[in-house]
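DATA SHEET
Item: assembly model
Revision: 1
Owner: S.N.
Input lines:
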Amino acid sequence: MARVRAKQTLVVSLLGLVLGGCYSGVDGFDGPGAGGDPARVPPGDDAGQDDGNPEASCEEGPAVGASPLRRLTRFEYDNAVRDLLGDTTRPGEQLFSPDEHLGGFAANAVAPISKTQLDEYASAAEDLATTFVQSQLDQWIDCPVTDTACAAGFVDAFGRRAFRRPLETDEVDDYVALYEDANQAWDGETGLRLVVESMLMSPNFLYHLELMPEGTAETDVTPVSPYELAARTSFFVWASVPDDALLDAAAAGELDTPEGLETQVRRMLEDDRAADTLASFTGQWMHLEGIEDKVKDATLFPQWDLSMAESMQRETTAFVDEVVRNGDATLGTLLTARWTMADAPLAALYGVAGPDGEFGRVDLPPQERAGLLTQASFLTTNAHAAEVSWVYRGKFVRENLLCQHLPAPPIGVEVNEANDLGRLEDPECSGCHLMMDPIGWGFDDYDPLGIFVGEGQPGEVAGAPEVGEFDGVVQLAESLAASQTVQDCVATQWFRYAARREEQSADTCALDDIKATFAESGQDIRELIVAVVLSDAFRYRTAQQS
Amino acid sequence: MARSRFANFSRRRFLMGAGACGMGLPFLSSLVARAGSDPVDRARRLIIFCSPNEPINPDFWLPPGASHGSVLTGLAPEMASLEPYRDKLLMLGNMDMASRIADPHPGGHIGMGHLLVGRRVTEIGPNEPEHWASGMSVDQHIAAALDMDPLTVGIRVSGANGNSRISYVGDSQPVDPVTNPSVLFDNLFADATLPAEELAALKAQRLSVLDRVTGDLERIKSRLPAEGRNKLEIHTDMVRDLELKIESDQVIDCDPTAPPSADTFDYGSNANFPTAVRRQIDVTLQAMGCGISDVATIQLSNSGASNLTPLWPTEGIDLNLNYHDIVHDHNEDPNNATIIDRRLQAETFFYSMFAYLLEQLDTIEEGDGTTMLDNSLVVWMKPIAQRHNFNEFLFMLAGSANGQLSTGRYLSFDGQPHNNLLVNLCNLMGLPDTSYGEAQFCTGPLDLG
């Protein structure tokens, strides 16, 4: 492993020259994000657009950026049919085309539906509806399927859950007419099956619909209606459809006040379904998806296999869950805890005694491990087959903990998947690589599987005075946890996860409020989730692009 | 007689064909392809085969003695599997991907979005790394002109972004490939063994569902801002197309054989990739032979193929290094014999997958002494040129496009934009287009004479 200690002085002096721009050595580069100079981003700010609007406008009334119309993600679809139909086959994950991402999270917000996806929805709807009427119908009705009034009651009750709002009279009539025609042509069961199938194919089910209130213009900022707010809240906190209690609260006007909304959010955070959103956020933010496909050198890492990959993924998901839902829920603990949730093989990788039972809490060597950044999943994902990756490990800290956006390499530069000190001296590369590699090589204590090998060297987070130089990831983690920039960035990441897009200038006031609440709470993730829901950006909507 | 219904509405199981677990479906050789509507003035079928990542440098693949117009007297060793079809190949060297060269969007792999589109890409958002192609791809365009649905299939295609899609119906409107041969088969043939009465009932039920869905779409459209309304209009059009297809009651005259069920075989795994490619080709060719469509794109993995690790000893390759790294290792260390050998093994493998396609096509007789290969226009392509450049591309055509092409030669195009080839594809399929993609990147069809 290359030793760079001797070069530290050189690195520091180079930093002085290149902090003016990530691409200061490349003439004429004009790619996206080049205007977002990460080195100039002041602490506490993030990578959102800056169009020069003064922040004094925060007193002028609610403001929010526009959100494009989104379809349910595969995870949301599977959770929805689980909660509506009792189905546990996960058709989205098994059969649907992959989700498109925006703001770092699955969103399905840009490309319209494709023919393939329509076929997938149709196929799933037919199968789900068929199984449902055969096995679950008695959970919904206790009247004869041949009876129209019975069917109407079902349309009303099921429709309200599936569409996340009560159906209007003419909608109920349309679905009852569908039922009646089918009941006549075939039988009542078929009638109800077609009702369910149609609802699962309806835009009211497949999209996160937010309608413009009557008489309003696209540029208006309007409150999200109570039922739409209920849906936003449950998809955010549970990654699924609202339950009856939440819909009832919407009906009763309880979501119209921050107090009523807050009561519901806190109730939902106590529900086990909150685990799903924590898992979804963590998996996407930490790039855990696809870890099972990582290739590792079989000679160096014979223990690497699917089972190990699954253990690592399970560890990080369970750790975050344990901290947030059973622990103090703080960012500090997530980044610096000297314990984790592991099975025996993973404990062995960490060099500690295994858990009680098959899986559980284990203590870690305090000089070697601290929180998420020293977990095997993170270290493994951000490494190559036989070598660690300074770029990946550094890039994660830059983009996902400091929210400092790094543009793509210039056109024509071939990305080579290996560490290379030469990039720090080549003016075409050094600007950006000085933002990543000196962080990354500070992780060299951990090999490509996350095993502690103690070959580390000091690292540096350039342009972030709160963090600066560090010797070992434990120290880095402590600094990051204490850093205002990081705390603000984590708040921003949760904002992006809630909105499924990056923040726009119109979101600034709301996002600042969220950051302030997060800070006041001592960086409590649960308070952050509540703050996001109570923010203007969550409770208001607009079609006005900013 | 089997009825075809393009929409996938069920996952019913089929009789498994003999040899279903083996490496070939014997029925193909006995399937005499339908001439369909007897297209005399065009290639009978267009099949686009997209191989991932970039080719090794031309020293390794240029045929011996290659110069513009030269006859192919032999093929490079890595293309040995294509030798039986050498006289049916047309190798096209030295085109540039001019649209990509002019595209300000960075990223070595955005050639995927340019390949069949020939336009500068559309970015998804200001700080977003992702993009989509900005127009309709040539396969979709040709299929639309011929009034048919193309078959868009892939194997081990992961992600939903510009590096994973080659087929588009419009700006930022990608077509997701169907990546599971078993699902593809069901999509195309699922109702074939249903009794007529049951099929009629199922169709009527599906139509009533789609009618109800259309009602919901119409109801809410006006309540959305323009951006959302647009999406729902596209959705509504798609639902209408589906209804029309169900109503059209198209009859096909063939006896399809299903691939092994997805319940028993994991078509998405890395380990099963070579078999999955073959089964996907089988199902696609069955569909084309049955006259379901005359246009198909077959996509192997994504642009970079970092999700392919060639641990496939039965294919003659056993490397625990993903294909993306195999390519990059060599570009970094081009003279290392071991590294060269690894890369050539991988290239050889990918050419063998193309050879399988040609082999199956050449096995199917068209009833007049010609084979499906002879009468088709098959196009081999990669989304990038060597060392992630966009100059000196290699494209290959196979088949004579129903006698329109003079094959068995190497042609060199001295930096012409690849949009020009897209025009040829249109013309060879009977369309009159004189330009494709952005006009500034197109100077008219290549001279393939």
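QC remark: The first strand of chain B starts at residue 2 and ends at 3.
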